[in-house]
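note to self: dont lose this again. the chain is below, predicted strucutre after it. 344 aa total, dont forget to put it in the shared folder this time
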Amino acid sequence: MRVGNVRFNWPDILDVYYKKATPEILSYVTFDLSKLSTLVDNPVGFWRVALYVRLNNRSADSFYSNATSFFGHPFYIEFPVKENDTPANIAQRIKNIADKYMLLQTEEKLIDIEISGTNITFKGTTGYQYFHVAKIQYWDDKAIAVDCCANQGDFIDVITGVPVKYTVENGEVTKTQVVAATGENLADNEAPIVNGTEAFGDYNWIIHNLRLPSPANTDWWTGDKNEMPVVGATYDQFIIRLIKERDGIAGGILGQRATTVTTHVFYVNTEFAADFKAILEGAVGEGNIRDYIDGMLDDPFKTTNSANYVAQTPYKTGPVIPAHDDEKVPYATSEEGEGGEGEH
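---
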């Protein structure tokens, strides 16, 4: 089988995997401000929104650097609640204060704030962010007893954000009011946190993980411009693994056979991925392309979990994928070749 200028020999194909590109899901937390007057007897006073935003391991934005191994940054938005304030007034006040704070302190919008009725939503701006802490707190002058005759003020939690389970349909979150950790419904003093995920296979993901914006990839003279991703496009992943017995390495091997496994990864524009997949299925047989989940590649020398695996006793004894007539397979060839890596 030939993919571009790379050749794969039928008996050497161990297995083929496929992973579809997915859009990023932005994390967010939504507070219902109408609950302030029901959870606190007299809501007039000083309040604050306390957020702690972390980054997943695939991002290293220095703005979130701290003294721990986890990248994260706190956001505190203090605001007053006055007599006769409505939830809509309070929400707009919070947004105005927060937008001004981010403009002056960070010079960019790190969190989007949306208002809908009595609800205020704090949403991340990239798929790398997730909410580790999200609370609305009220200042209580007598929160902590110091001794018999004195008290110390402190912010006390009124509404606490809790991660919820959710599903995704067509790139949009379908939220369920069920706590992710316990499966129970949210309490009145809890707010739903939807912690999203980064995209897979979009332009930013490709640039971040595969085609770094280095001079070797971006200068006018580079020869790899045709392998750079297209802005706005997405790319599906195809993984082809080959297993082959080697005749000899570095002058020969004494006493045992040498078997090598090589992994070849292709990123194909989603617009053409269906055609590419059909060609692969014509080559390896329908049903022999497995959906890939991160971390699921089997070790052909230690496990027999793979559906396309022949037990190593002591080495692979035959082709995994059924043989095909080359003349009936589009773009197929039976030429011998070691193959190579490619990303498209």
